[in-house]
């Protein structure tokens, strides 16, 4: 029995599927770390919220809390699962099939291109939100630095 050689297209499709899935995993890991950081920063800020601070310090601190809160929402959207299943190439789609025969019929076609397209769209959305969250976190850190300077004056 001989097997057909694997084409460049097959190798590239397999590699792309693996690469995109890996990128999604990376965004989820980064988002989790940033969520922990932002949560700790918000907890620290909450612990000093009842202190009598000068108004400019309170304003900068409030803006920092808003920026951290915005970052946290963006990070939660990064880790929120996408269960649309409108791609014919993912487990949410397969879960909606009527029976085992429908699953087998779906497996008769090469869905790698669809999977790459859908996963790439998901990865791009996750990376965009992650980037926005990092920008908000950096803005919050700048505002906290400003608040610290203002507190020293």
Automatic annotation (TrEMBL):
Q: Where is the Pycsar effector protein domain?
A: 13-152
Q: Which InterPro entries match?
A: PycTM_dom (IPR043760)
Pfam families xrefs: PycTM
Superkingdom field: Bacteria
UniProt keyword terms in alphabetical order: Antiviral defense, Cell membrane, Membrane, Nucleotide-binding, Plasmid, Transmembrane, Transmembrane helix
Membrane-spanning parts: 31-49, 61-79, 133-152
The alphabetized list of GO BP terms reads: defense response to virus
One of the record's GO cellular component terms: plasma membrane
Q: Name one GO molecular function term.
A: nucleotide binding
Q: Where in the cell is it found?
A: Cell membrane
- Protein name, per record: SpdB3-like
């Amino acid at each position: 029995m001989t097997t057909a050689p694997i084409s460049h297209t097959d190798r590239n499709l397999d590699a792309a599927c693996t690469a995109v899935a890996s990128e999604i995993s990376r965004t989820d890991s980064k988002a989790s770390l940033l969520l922990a950081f932002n949560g700790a920063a918000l907890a620290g800020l909450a612990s000093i919220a009842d202190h009598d601070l000068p108004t400019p310090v309170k304003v900068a601190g409030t803006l920092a809390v808003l920026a951290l809160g915005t970052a946290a929402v963006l990070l939660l959207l990064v880790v929120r699962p996408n269960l649309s299943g409108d791609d014919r190439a993912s487990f949410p789609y397969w879960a909606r099939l009527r029976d085992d025969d429908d699953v087998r019929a779906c497996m008769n076609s090469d869905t790698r291109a669809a999977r790459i397209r859908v996963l790439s769209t998901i990865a791009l959305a996750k990376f965009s939100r992650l980037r926005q969250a990092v920008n908000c976190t950096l803005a919050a850190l700048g505002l906290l630095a400003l608040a610290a300077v203002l507190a020293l004056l």
